[in-house]
């Protein structure tokens, strides 16, 4: 049994699987063997950590082996055909004032008028404190 088969067996998938199938199998296994699922039992939690380590290693190995290019990819060199376009001229943005909150304005005016009316009433009736 070669390495690819072993890692496929850990994730429960076939060697001819698609990348979507690999990711789905990985998510299912990782959720099932999450050590937090076994918070009440320390020994099961340790076994889950070990199993999750195997699952993560299999996922990384299979992604690299099956779906990533084998060697470094050479970037294509594109020859410039014309002079590069000049950078656009910078223009400052116009700053628009923030919209006024009319409700807050009228509440403030009402409160101030109330205090002025109370002060006027105290002056008119000459109430002593």
Fold and architecture overview:
This protein has four helices and no strands. It is mostly helical and 129 residues long. The protein has a domain at 3-67: Orthogonal Bundle (Helix Hairpins). Helix 1 (3-11) crosses helix 3 (42-67) and helix 2 (19-32) packs antiparallel against helix 3. The longest helix has 26 residues, at 42-67. The termini are far apart. The model has no long low-confidence stretch (mean pLDDT 82).
Category by helix and strand content:
mainly alpha
Order of helices and strands: HHHH
Sequence stretches where pLDDT stays below 50 over 5 or more residues: none
The biggest sheet, with number of strands, parallel, antiparallel or mixed sense and barrel status, is: none
Give the fraction of residues assigned to helices. Answer: 55-70%
Distance separating the two termini: 99 Å
DSSP, total strands: 0
Cα shape: elongated
State mean pLDDT (0 to 100 scale). Answer: 82
Percent strand equals: under 5%
Count of separate DSSP helical elements? 4
What name does the CATH topology of the domain at 3-67 carry?
A: Helix Hairpins
């Amino acid at each position: 049994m070669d390495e690819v088969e072993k890692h496929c067996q850990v994730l429960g998938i076939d060697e001819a699987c698609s990348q979507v199938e690999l990711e789905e199998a990985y998510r299912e296994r990782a959720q099932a063997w999450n050590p937090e699922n076994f918070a009440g039992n320390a020994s099961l939690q340790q076994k889950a950590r070990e199993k999750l380590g195997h699952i993560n290693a299999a996922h990384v190995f299979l992604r690299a082996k099956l779906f990533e290019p084998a060697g470094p990819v050479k970037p294509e060199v594109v020859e410039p055909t014309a002079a590069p376009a000049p950078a656009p001229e910078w223009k400052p943005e116009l700053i628009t004032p923030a919209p006024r909150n009319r409700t807050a304005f009228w509440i403030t005016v009402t409160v101030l008028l109330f205090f002025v009316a109370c002060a006027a009433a105290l002056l008119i009736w000459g109430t002593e404190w």
